[in-house]
Amino acid sequence: CFLGWDPPDSTARATPDGATGTADPATRRRSAERRTDYHRCIKTMNRRGKSTQPCEYYFRVYHSLCPISWVQRWKEQIKDGTFAGKI
């Protein structure tokens, strides 16, 4: 306890290595938003015939926020056509 503040339960946030665990709702939302931003950016830039290099920002952000297990699951869902989000 630091100045009367107890950190949240360690199971309520992503693990530092991003491999396992859950995250608080705000982190989940930001993670999913950045992931969607990345894929929309790629789609838009490809449609316009422009470089996708500016989209790499979103890629780095969502890979740093999201546990690896989420990223792998999303990739599989997109590949299988079962991803619930609209890209």
UniProtKB/TrEMBL annotation:
It is found in: Mitochondrion. Coiled coil: none annotated. Its main location: mitochondrion. The keyword Hydrolase does not apply. GO terms for cellular component: mitochondrial crista; respiratory chain complex IV. InterPro entries: COX6B-like, CX6/COA6-like_sf, Cyt_c_oxidase_su6B. Keywords: Disulfide bond, Mitochondrion. Residues 1-35 are annotated as: Disordered. This is Cytochrome c oxidase subunit 6B2. It comes from Bos taurus.
